[in-house]
Amino acid sequence: MKIILLGPPGAGKGTQAKVLSQRLNLVHISTGDLLRQNVSKATQLGLEAKDYMNKGALVPDTLVTSMLSERFNQEDVKKGFILDGYPRTLKQAESLDVLLKEKQYKIDKVFYLDTSEKIVVQRLSGRLVCSKCSANFHKTNMPPKKDMVCDACGASLYQRQDDKEETIKKRLQVYQQESAPLIEYYKSKGKLVRVDSDQDANVVLEEIIRRSKENDTPKV
Ligand code: AMP
């Protein structure tokens, strides 16, 4: 199975993708995580991407697409994948179509995690991320058992640089301008499934799993 998760920052794409990848035995490909790994290792790509990310802007399409193309060349992707955070522009969606064709892969469904702005801001401003395994927590909605320590691996938690209030606003603007048109793009291909992502994360998860198993053309 090959799935794309769409939706604004804070819609819960990363949280859902992590659990879904285990439940459905799929590879989780997060371009945000891949970029952050490059930034922390100070690779050439990381150095080029860092300023865009800290400002809440998109990293240029060519850089992200070639990073994804490399990831697609790895063996594990063959078992199926969840794309989280890619595509984010129409140009990336077209590049993805080319990459998929080369690999003879077909996207089964595109889940649009539809979320209100109020919830997004509340989720992002309280989000805490593990510095080692990138598990997500939340200061009030899902606090770790021990203050600023990851329940899963024991490493320290941090607040993402781009989860500061000013940067959140910028990211939401960028989403509206660049990424929202992808909803129509995948709707017109008959692949879009809308899920109300203001709901509790477990309810959203079960709905995605149920609908991923339906064989019919998705009803938006
Ligand atoms: P995320 O973890 O998905 O919220 O991504 C964090 C940041 O990484 C974004 O705000 C962008 O700066 C960058 N990024 C991640 N995925 C992409 C993408 N597909 N295209 C451009 N920039 C991206």
What would CATH call the class? Alpha Beta
Q: Briefly note the structural class of the backbone.
A: alpha/beta
Strand order of the largest sheet: 2-3-1-4-8
CATH topology: Rossmann fold
Structure description:
By secondary structure, the chain is an alpha/beta fold. The protein has a single domain, classed as 3-Layer(aba) Sandwich (Rossmann fold), CATH 3.40.50. The protein is 47% helix and 15% strand. The protein contains 9 helices and 8 strands. It has helices at residues 13-23, 31-40, 44-55, 61-72, 90-103, 117-125, 165-179, 181-188, 201-212; strands spanning 2-6, 27-30, 81-84, 109-114, 127-130, 136-138, 157-158, 192-196. The strands form 2 sheets. The chain has a 5-stranded parallel β-sheet with strand order 2-3-1-4-8, sandwiched between helices. A 3-stranded antiparallel β-sheet has the order 6-5-7. A hairpin with a 5-residue loop joins β5 (127-130) and β6 (136-138). α1 packs across α9, α2 (31-40) crosses α3 (44-55) and α4 (61-72) runs parallel beside α5 (90-103). The longest helix has 15 residues, at 165-179. The protein is globular, with a radius of gyration of 17 Å. The structure holds adenosine monophosphate. Adenosine monophosphate is lined by residues 9, 31-32, 35, 52-53, 56-59, 64, 85-86, 88, 92, 162, 171.
Structure described in brief:
The protein is an alpha/beta fold.
